[in-house]
Amino acid sequence: MLFFHGKRIFSAIFDMDGTLFDTERLRFKTLKQASVEIFGKALSEDTLIGSLGLSATKAEALAKAHNGENFPYAEIRKRADELELEYVRNHGVPIKAGLLEVLERLRKSGLTMAVATSSRRAIAEEYLINANVLKYFDITVCGDEVSQGKPHPEIFLKAARALNCEPDQCFMVEDSENGMLSAIRAEGQAILIEDIKPPAAQIKAGALKAYRSMHEFLADLSECVPDLGMPALSEPFPASLNQFSVGIHGFGAIGGGYLTQVFSHWDGYTRPREIIAATRSRMLRESVNAFGRYSVRYGATSFDQTIDNVRMIDLDDDDAVIGMYTTAEIVGLSLPEQAIRNQAKVIAKGLLQRFERRGRELTLLIVLNKVGGAAFVRRHVQAELALLCPPAIGEQVLEKTHFAETVVSRIVSKLSNDALVRQLRIKSQMFQNSLEDEPAVATKASTPVPEYERLIGRFRPFAQPSSAMSQLHLILFNSEPDMPLYVEHGSELLERLRQVKTVPDITQIQVIKNRLWNGPHAVVAWYASLLGHDSVGQGMGDARVSELAERLIRHEVGPALVAEYPHMAEVVSRFADTFLERCATSFKDPCARVGRDPLRKLQRNERILSSIDLARKHGIETPALTFGAALAIHHALRCEDSKDQEAQAIRQVYRENDASVEAVLTRDGDCNGKRFPGLHPIRDEQLITAISEAFRQYPQRDMATRRDDLCIGA
């Protein structure tokens, strides 16, 4: 039962053409074509619009009134049916945007449902099956099963009786004037979803509610259905697919291991029909596209979650990325700063093409460990738009794009390429063994083949043994189980996503999360690595690492944040507890990955040094943070990853300046395409001295073996 605008609703009865499906326009086209073929002249718009919602008999009478008694309407209608079916079988039924979300909400609210259509049963059933929505309806009443068509109320009354429901307790959802008259005369709760021709004002006034689109009805309906709340980790994704495509621009740890989950849970009622994900990794693209799905492993709960309906594209294929921005309803942008600078042009092209072709708004979900990340992306996209189109068009494109700032409360790591290859090798052997074990099916040539066997035979060459396929899911990411994605208010779409927690001001949460997680996370990884540990979880088993983590969080960064934002003390405590708990079990979180890019972490306004400033502002001593800054340089000097250009830059400055820590900290140069904001030699002299002293206290060689020399209390 649903309580909707003062009415108790137990059932919902839907018209089909023009309400469930956008077929009225298709019907107009096929009737015109059939009329030209048979009669030599197209039916007029007046005839077509006047026949909306009418039974075949009444539509024929109207056509003959306009074209003469000899008008071959029955023959034209039959030919139009053939043309329409041909289109539907080749292209599918055009479903009204928002329909599936509406049907899911009504069904999960306990309503029984019916279709009441003027179309013949043969047509209606084919359309409902083709569109995969027949499952929502308990009964169907068709035009060839009633004696009087719309606007007579018979068809709605018959459907209500079949549902054992009083008409005044039924939604009767229509798009046409004749359909509305039928629903009103049946004394149902008429819901108008406008289509080609809005009903006359006096008829529209008889509706319980009138909407310009199914999405408007959905928004109103959403206020009346239960709030499903944040999903549990192991809760299945919705079974029904909606009409949306979504995009992931950057299929890294967060993009592939978190945003895909957020999009798959969607609103709890449906989920997107396709996730388009862009990555440069050919191995990832080929692997996911071959299997059609992949899994994220939550080691702390021994749970593997499978993400399907994923299509991978090449990040360097501009046309494919532009196409993603054109078609997707929401895009998760999860790239580093420099990559965003490099991709700004293709993003701008995608937004411009979307504006020109669709004119629809786009939500751009920006996952960037940076306060002001949305403004950063918008600024670079705006600069590229200025080169692509006139300023007025560029402003309209930006107005249609919601740049959504986010805070991720989860630690995710991507499996290495070597680990993926090992999985592929094992899965390949399992699949081959299963194929070899599959029993052969013996058939006799003389035995008549039943029709079902002949039909199934068309699919069999494309099917794989289910026992083999069930094993073929690849683990691509290891993740911690934290669910909420914090996003700033501003997009209606984001308000509907079940795993998204919208907040009025994201800035403070960003600062708290960045200070509590990003800086300390890197410090813990550097220390663990220097002590010879491969993962953060292993490192936390070393008392020196765990004590450093506790000191950073409980005695320096956490207290400084509470002093700065006393009203956010509970949030600080929650993030602090979560961080320490997750680090302790992050056995698949490589120190090498967490500790990469040390130069940006030593910027004046970033993570470690800014946390030192904040703590000192409130009179809090910072030996652990100072030690962490020194560890960044030690880590860079021993980094073996040739791709970590920031570590190489630190080594170069250090060596070119006679092993000077001060030269690294006050570096004057470029970092990720912009000026590096290092420490000031004079204003920050005290801090530079403290970090330099911390650096010198520890040996610069054999760090992994001389563990006793590496203790924060030295």
UniProtKB/TrEMBL annotation:
Keyword Disulfide bond: no
Source taxon at top rank: Bacteria
Gene3D superfamilies: HAD superfamily/HAD-like (3.40.50.1000), N-(1-d-carboxylethyl)-l-norvaline Dehydrogenase, domain 2 (1.10.1040.10), NAD(P)-binding Rossmann-like Domain (3.40.50.720), Putative phosphatase, domain 2 (1.10.150.240)
Cofactor(s) it depends on: Mg(2+)
SUPFAM superfamilies, per database record: 6-phosphogluconate dehydrogenase C-terminal domain-like (SSF48179), HAD-like (SSF56784)
Example of a GO MF term: hydrolase activity
Database matches in InterPro entries: 6-PGluconate_DH-like_C_sf, 6PGD_dom2, HAD-like_sf, HAD-SF_hydro_IA, HAD_2, HAD_sf, Mannitol_DH_C, PGP-like_dom2
Domain Mannitol dehydrogenase C-terminal: 511-666
Record key words, sorted: Hydrolase, Oxidoreductase
NCBIfam families in the record: bifunc_MtlD, HAD-SF-IA-v3
Protein name: HAD family hydrolase
